[in-house]
């Protein structure tokens, strides 16, 4: 009954708040009590001596409607939608949810997004654009970053990336050093394992384990990792950028699109 009373109180609140998503301009009008209950960050902004409190408006950068819609669902039901893994860009969406929870102080959202991302990466290789977004936006010691580094490194050594995808990986600033540092220290595995042990108990990753070929979906011809100087990749988080190696094979493109569907940005 406590939950029912809390839900009821939101809709008895005559004070509304406007939330504006800066990236796509989407606006939400929600009860103030509900918004404050989503996050301590929102509560402090709306109840303190800030411009947001006076204007009853919150502007959220780096967030799109597809992410905030799930945030609202998660707040109502305390779980992610059951069909979230069938979304067109599940990796991108889950990374965005984890980053939202990190920025706006919603630890349970981070835990659930990490768990779902780990399950997806058991049968998908990390999309290059999503990895780039994770490395740019995720804290260096974060469990999310650790997970994507671990899975990407494993899939590289399994020869699971196409030439086009590998070219995209090579363009991520500092990519080869990040991978080498992770392998040498094993730090990413320990951070991820510790986090999962605390929050999940149902997922375990050995510091010496590697993903199977099946986990990376398919096995294109093996690529040799050259110690070339990586170029800069834009922060747009795009899974399928134009190839710099020439036209793609049609069958390869069809298979690849099932794993890393094109996206128009973050």
Automatic annotation (TrEMBL):
UniProt cross-references to Pfam families, sorted A to Z: BTB
Record-given protein name: BTB domain-containing protein
PANTHER family, per database record: BTB DOMAIN-CONTAINING PROTEIN, BTB DOMAIN-CONTAINING PROTEIN-RELATED
Biased composition annotated in UniProt, kind: Basic and acidic residues: 246-256
Region listing for Disordered, in residue ranges: 234-266
UniProt biased composition (Polar residues): 257-266
Residues in BTB domain copies: 15-84
InterPro entries: BTB/POZ_dom, SKP1/BTB/POZ_sf
């Amino acid at each position: 009954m406590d939950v029912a009373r809390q839900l009821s109180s939101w809709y008895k609140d005559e004070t509304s708040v406007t939330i504006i998503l800066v990236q796509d301009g989407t606006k939400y009008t929600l009860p103030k009590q509900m918004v404050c209950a989503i996050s301590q960050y929102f509560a402090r902004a709306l109840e303190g001596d800030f411009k947001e409190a006076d204007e009853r408006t919150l502007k959220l950068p780096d967030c799109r409607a597809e992410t905030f819609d799930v945030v609202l669902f998660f707040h109502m039901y305390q779980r992610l939608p059951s069909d979230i893994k069938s979304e067109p860009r599940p990796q991108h969406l889950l990374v965005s949810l984890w980053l939202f929870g990190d920025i706006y102080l919603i630890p349970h959202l981070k835990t659930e997004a990490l768990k779902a991302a780990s399950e997806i990466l058991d049968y998908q290789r990390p999309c290059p654009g999503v990895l780039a977004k994770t490395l740019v936006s995720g804290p260096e010691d974060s469990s999310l970053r650790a997970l994507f580094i671990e899975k990407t490194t494993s899939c590289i050594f399994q020869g699971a990336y196409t030439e086009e995808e590998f070219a995209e990986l090579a363009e991520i600033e500092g990519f080869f050093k990040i991978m080498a540092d992770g392998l040498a220290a094993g730090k990413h595995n320990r951070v991820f394992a510790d986090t999962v042990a605390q929050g999940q108990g149902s997922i375990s990753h050995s510091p010496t384990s590697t993903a199977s070929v099946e986990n990376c979906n398919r096995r294109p011809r093996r690529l040799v990792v050259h110690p070339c100087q990586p170029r800069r990749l834009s922060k747009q988080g795009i899974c399928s950028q134009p190839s710099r190696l020439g036209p793609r094979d049609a069958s390869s493109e069809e298979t690849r699109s099932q794993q890393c569907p094109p996206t128009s940005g973050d």
